[in-house]
Amino acid sequence: MTDQPAAPMHVPFFVVKQKLTMMVNRYEISESDQSFNPVRMLALAEQKRMAFKEQVTFYSDAGKSRPVFGFKARKVMDLGSGYDITDESGQQIGFFKKDFGASLLRSTFHVEGAGFAGTGQERSQLVGLVRRFTDLSFLPIHFDFLDPQGKTLFSVERRMSIGDRYNVTVADSRVDFRVAAAVAVGLDALMAR
Fold this sequence. Notes:
Elements: E1 13-20, E2 24-32, E3 38-48, E4 55-59, E5 67-73, E6 83-87, E7 92-98, E8 108-113, E9 116-122, H1 125-133, E10 141-146, E11 152-158, E12 165-170, H2 177-190
Antiparallel strand pairs: 1-2, 1-12, 2-3, 3-4, 4-5, 5-6, 6-7, 7-8, 8-9, 9-10, 10-11, 11-12
């Protein structure tokens, strides 16, 4: 696939499940088999519902005993500036940002990590347009992140449902699980889900 070495934390399949509570959006990230049946919990993230969406921290367990990675906006009031993804020691391991110009017809994001860069876009322009002009929050969402040569880095898919559950397939072994998980949660948060 590539001459680049595999990411130190490559997970080929995982599920991001959002749980809504009164005050926070909670995201549970679990490694899964190829059919997206959860195998083990990898991380948990919480985001205050009424707060700015400038920072999300992922923890190793439900007790939030240890932060293991996260993402933070480069500028608080400028959503176009992008988000740095950091490991537990605060070292940058990736970056993503929404391309607001390209997102007028269907949401588009750029992502970078160690040894790769790419662009992700909603697969269906029709679904993207319907989502913008209606309140149909149960519609499916499918993003494919491709490198400049058109090869798939990873995909994030939410099937038609009431609850938000995203199936993530990481096709490229260079993609660190933490980068793909941060982007999957960021997609949900930035699309005002």
